[in-house]
TrEMBL record:
InterPro entries: Asp23
Name this polypeptide is given: Asp23/Gls24 family envelope stress response protein
Organism listed in the record: Rhodococcus erythropolis (strain PR4 / NBRC 100887)
Family: Belongs to the asp23 family.
Amino acid sequence: MVSTQVATASTKDVASSNDSALVSSQGKTSIADTVVSKIAGIATREVSGVYDVGGGASRVVGALRERIPGASVNHSQGVSVEVGEKQAAVDIDIVAEYGVSLADLATGIRRNVIAALERMTGLEVTEVNITVHDVHLDEGSDDETGEPKTARVQ
């Protein structure tokens, strides 16, 4: 009888460790990769110091898409994910603003992405890898027209 109780207790422990917010006795919730990548992309853009999300090619495609009338912004641009039943891993490509500490920026992105994904999806985020592809330098434009600033010294 003692061995039966031990077996039953270990079976319960295994069952409770397998349960998550997404898998329960009442059913299973599956979250598509595109949903996770969209949430991660939005959370990345919220962090101050991120100029753009995506590497060179994806930013070019995104810029072309934005010029098409009626087209929507691709929030998952520059984000790739691997999603399992309980966990997710995220890779993010960014362009940082000049002058921002890249280490602090990466820490802020990780914190924001992990918080958003775990809160919204219930998935455990195992890693957030960030690649900084470029640094954006404001080339002297002082308004939206893109015209250069007037010279300070004549």
